[in-house]
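Hey, can you fold this one?
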Amino acid sequence: MDTYSKSGDIGAYTTYFGLVPDYNMGITVLAAGDNKFSQMQVIRNIVVDAFYNAAEEAAKEQARAAFTGTFKASELNSSIKFAVDDGPGVVITDWISNGTDFLANAFLYPSNDFRLYHTGLSIVHDELMWYKYQLSALPNGGEPGMDLTWNENNARWIWGDSASYGNLGTQAFLIGFDSNGVVQSVGSQALRCNMTRQAA
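Sure. Predicted structure:
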């Protein structure tokens, strides 16, 4: 999650301005006086703690309602299961591709934490709003590698589409939402497989 911020001072006045596009929210703090900067910091921290945490929890609740479930292909033994936990992104807990456990393939091994992240790309097709997501696979339950400063496991986000099939990245997904914002269809681009939501 990115925060775009700017602060500034003039005379007895100071201000802080911050925007969080992911949450569609922002804050502005204006302060004046002999201790203007310390006043601004205290107010900013209180506002950020209260509203950012509330926005994150609301986003998690929305994501659980939208993503959680199992999606299956109609003509192949292919399925994928999504969940939302306390970590970032959407968790892939199970992924079967044509009868094979795709999360156990050589490219993803020894990863054990598989998450989808929104790329910001979208298109409307077949009455669904489709968004592109990118798979990030990490070992150690998603914990950062601490043994080396430039541990490759800390930079998996730059590996996008490093493994491909038929010129399409195996980490790329197209996810279709209905008008209520609930996921109805999941497409693995490289595997040319479309999976639809199954009844609970």
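The two ends are 31 Å apart (CA to CA). Let me know if you want another pass with a different chain boundary.
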